[in-house]
Amino acid sequence: MENRAHIDEAAYSRTSTERLQQLASDADAAVRWYVAENPQTPSDALALLALDIDASVQQAALDALQTRQTLRMLFRKRLERDASHLVVSADNNGSPS
Q1: Residues 24-34: pLDDT tens digits?
Q2: % helix / strand / coil in the chain, to the nearest 5?
Q3: Helix (H, G, I), strand (E, B) or coil at 13
Q4: How many angstroms separate the CA atoms of 26 and 30, rounded?
C-alpha cells in the first residue's frame, strides 16, 4: 500500500518539489517514473533520474529534460523576436515604413 501512496504523491501536480526530490530516490521504479513524468520535478532530480538503473525511468527523465530545454529555447526566441519588433517600432516612431 505504501507504493501506491508514493505513486499517487509522485503523480500529483501539487506535490512539493522537496517531496519529489525525496521520491526520486524511492526503491520502486514505478514511483521514480512518475516523479520523472511530473512537471513540477526539479531539474536536478531529473538529472539524477536520467542515470537511473531502470530504462523507462531514464527515458522519462531525459524526455522531461529535453522538453524543458526546448521550451526554454522557444521562449528565448520569442523574447528576441518581440524585442526586435519593439526596436523596429521605436525606430519608426509609429510611422508607416
Answers
A1: 999 999 999 99
A2: 75, 0, 25
A3: coil
A4: 9
> Where in the sequence is the domain holding 51, given as residue range(s)?
2-92
**CA neighbor of 49 nearest in space, from 80, 25, 14:** 25
Total-model pTM: 0.76
Query: How many separate domains does the chain show?
Result: 1
Position 42 in a domain: yes
Rounded to 10 degrees, the C-alpha dihedral 45/48/52/56 comes to 50
Instruction: State the cell numbers at 37.
Output: 513524468
- Give the pLDDT of the chain (97 residues) as one tens digit per residue: 578 999 999 999 999 999 999 999 999 999 999 999 999 999 999 999 999 999 999 999 999 999 988 988 888 888 888 877 766 555 565 555 4
Report residue 56 as a C-alpha cell: 523507462
Instruction: Tell me the C-alpha distance between 52 and 97, whole Å.
Output: 57
Half-sphere exposure of 78 (CA within 13 A, CB side): 6
